[in-house]
Structure formats: C-alpha cells, structure tokens
Amino acid sequence: MIKTDVVIIGAGPVGLFAVHQLGIKGLKSEVIDNLDKAGGQCIELYPDKPIYDIPAVPKCSGKSLTDNLLEQIKPFGSNIHLNERVQEIKEEKGLWTLKTSNNKTFTTPNIIIAGGVGSFEPRKLPLKELAKFENKSVFYSVTDKTLLKNKKISIFGGGDSALDWALEFAKFSKVTLIHRRNEFRGAPHTLKELEKLKKEGKIIIKTPFQISSINEGKELKFIKIKNDDEKTEKIETDIVLGFFGLIMQLGPIAEWGLNMDKKTIKVNTENFQTNKPGIFAIGDICSYPGKLKLILSGFHEAALASVECFKRARPNETYRFQFTTSSKEIQDRLGIKK
Amino acid sequence: MPKITYIEQNGNSKTIEVDNGLTVMEGAVQNNIPGIDADCGGGMACATCHVYVEDSWLNKLPKAKDAEQDMIDMAYKPNKNSRLSCQIVVSDEIDGLTVTTPEKQT
Question: Cβ contacts (< 8 Å) between B37 and chain A: which residues?
C-alpha cells in the first residue's frame, strides 16, 4: 500500500506539471500511466510535430516538451508507475483507495485525473471473428518473437511498425504484407529493403487489400482479403499481426460515478474538482463552459487544483500563496542552493 | 450558409448549415451528429472523425494530403471514399456535400 498526498492518473504534460504545482506546495504525489513512457499524447501521437503555443516557448516538439517537464519535476521525486492502469477506486472517510492492473494499491485524500482522452490501446482489425484468436494467433504487438518462427504470417498495416516487423519476420517465416492502399509509409531504407525482399520473393505484398473473413473452427487456417473492386483472395495463415496505431479508450474512469459529458468529466472552474470530493479532472479530459483543449489550459487547471489538494491533504495548515522567485521554502523544495 | 448532409449507417440523415471556414468535423460535433468522435479535436492524430464522401463529391474536394492518408490507414474500415472530416473545410464550393459516417470509429 502506497500512501501519498495525491495520485495523478496520466503522465501527459498536464499530469507532469501537476507534480510540479503540488511539489512546490510540499505535497507528495505518485503518477500512474497505462503507457510504457511518460508524455501522453505528446509522445504517443506527435513526438516530432512542433508545438507553437506553449507560453514563452516559440517552438518545441512533443518529445522536448516532455523531457523538459520531467527535468522540471525531478526535485520532487515522484514515482511514475508505467504500464499500469487504475482499475477501481473506493472512498472511505475522505480517503480514496486505488487499485491498479498490476495489483498495486494507493491510498490518498486526492486523485487528479489528467487522463487526456483515456488510455491508449492498440486499434484492432475490424472483424469480430478474430477476437477469439487474440493473443493466440492474432496479435497487435509483438512480445515474443520466438513464437512466430517458421510460421505463415499475415501482417496488416502500412506504417513503420508493419514494415519493420515484416522485414524482421521475413528472415524466418513466410510473410504476406497486406495494406489498404498501394503506398507504404516508412523510412527510405526500410522501403528499399521491402522492395528488395519482394523481388527476391521473400515477402508477398498484397495491396490495396483489407481483411474480409477467416475460416471457421477453433484454429486459424486462412484469411480472406478483399480489394475495393470486391476481388477476394485466400491466404493460408497461422498468425495475423495488425498494426493500426493506438486508439484512446476512456476505460474504467467512466464507471466511477463522475458527472460525465460524453467522454469528458464535468468540473468546476474554481479548483477543477468533480462531483466527488477529492477527485479532480484537468487537461483534455475535463469539461466546463469555455473549455479549450490546450496544454496551457491544462497547466492552469493543474495550478488551481493543487491548491484544493493542499487544503484536503493538510487540513490543519493554512495555505499561503507564494512565488518561486522569492519563497525560500519553495526554493528549498526545488533543491536550489544559494 | 453551406449545407452539409451527414448520413448514418442506419440511413438516418441530417442536413445542417455549417459556417464557412469550419470543418465538416466541427459542423458535426457542434450539432451533435452521432458517429463522429473527433477524439484529438482536429489535430489529424486519431482518425476518429472518419467519413465516407459520396462518389460525386470525391473529386470536387481538395485532395487528401499524405499525412491524412497515413492517418486514414488507421481508421475503422476505410475505403477509397474515406476522408477525415477534420480536414474538409466548409466553403460555398462544397455546399450540398454529403458524407456517410462509418458504423463505428474505433
């Protein structure tokens, strides 16, 4: 059981800045995120796309924004629990208990949900018959390469992941690469290698095709693919791999009894608390009149929520507003030596 | 004001007036058209505002850029009529545009 002043759900830019705003007030926090690295949408969706509307930063990438935030919150020593999703929450006498998918439990007076549009999950092939084969012969990520040796593998997708795995598995398996259009999107050397293996007959490429059906029965034996003109082909297949990027799913948060507005959580604009005392929502996941889904709005929301978190975590202390430029206390917390 | 028609898979259709300069996605979201999620808010980063453009309109719209096509690769059941509605800007030239929403976005 981990005790802390605040649990932050989501390690995107807003969740990370919340660590800072809590930290300068002397509050300890723990961050939980479903992804394997911090940064949220900035890292997962647009690590290299420039962002132009961070105040006082004329231009930065999602990656550099994340790196700078991680640097900025280093002094506070918050743990970031990655590859973990908060499954359930319970309240007792003003304290919240959280359980994660890795069976960790946290207890805290404050939960800040900075979950963006939800947790990222792989996007799946649009054929419901494939579901029963998932993690047996249908995969959306590769964890154990050895399982895929000397097999007939059908790979779907046209981006880097699909291409990289196609090249890798062509070394020891029979690979068919299937994509909905003729153009692939990959690094130039990858595309060149793909062309070479195609000429040597080591990879079969089927475009523009999409999956249409699979065999019946308990084992995957073949798939059928179809193009825009309804031309169908049958491909003997042991393993299907699909690489269609990630999709954001709200997940368990929707079941916590919070006031929702479609996929967002309603909050007040004084401290960004939800209808449940001690649960806050900030960043893209919160909604209120006039809400803008901007990183800078999320930073502001983090600052205001942190004040109410202080009051709940330190009911016997008086909150004092202080500036980082002049407060000795804050500078000590930041580890600044003078 | 240009009129845009949104048809659901079940055949329900709604025609709404959308201001010039807004996108077909924004027109849908502001008017509670079902079937368009637009999770990323128009950043061309999620493919959840995917629509099928009616054949007769396909060549009248400015062509999709590479980045849009790359994103459509990720969409649910794309076809040759697929576009991201966040990348179609409403103007008098596309008055009467008809799009069909997919059965789902994810």
Answer: 263
Question: How high is the mean pLDDT of chain B?
Answer: 94
Map out the domains of chain A with their CATH numbers. Answer: 2-121+247-333 (3.50.50.60), 124-244 (3.50.50.60)
Tokens of A254: 């929707």
- Please check whether residue B47 lies inside any domain of the structure: yes
The tally of domains found in chain B comes to: 1
Q: Which residues pair with B13 in a beta bridge?
A: B7
Q: How much is the ipTM here?
A: 0.84
Instruction: Classify residue A20 as left (phi > 0), alpha (psi -120 to 50) or beta.
Output: alpha
pLDDT of residue A263: 85
d(CA B99, CA B101): 7
Structural domain span for residue B84: 3-100
Find the CB nearest B45 among A45, A126, A179: A45
Q: Do the Cβ atoms of A239 and A152 come closer than 8 Å?
A: yes
Report the run of H or E that residue A31 belongs to, with start and end: strand A29-32
Per the listing, tokens 């800078």 go with A296
Cβ contact A144:A173 at 8 Å? no
Q: How far is B48 from chain A (nearest CA, A)?
A: 9
Taking the Cβ of residue A248 and every Cβ of chain B, the question of whether any pair is shorter than 8 Å is answered with yes
Helix (H, G, I), strand (E, B), or coil: what is residue B80?
Answer: coil
Has residue B106 been placed in a domain? Answer: no
**pTM of this prediction exceeds 0.80:** no
Q: What is the pLDDT of residues A223-240, one digit of tens each?
A: 999 998 889 999 999 999
Residue B105 placed within a domain = no
pLDDT average, residue stretch A298-323: 97
**Average confidence (pLDDT) over A50-75:** 96
Name A160's Cβ contacts closer than 8 Å, sequence gap at least 6.
A185, A186, A187, A190
Q: Is B95 domain-assigned?
A: yes
Whether B73 sits inside 8 A of A46 (CB atoms) is no
Q: What is the CATH number of the domain that holds B47?
A: 3.10.20.30
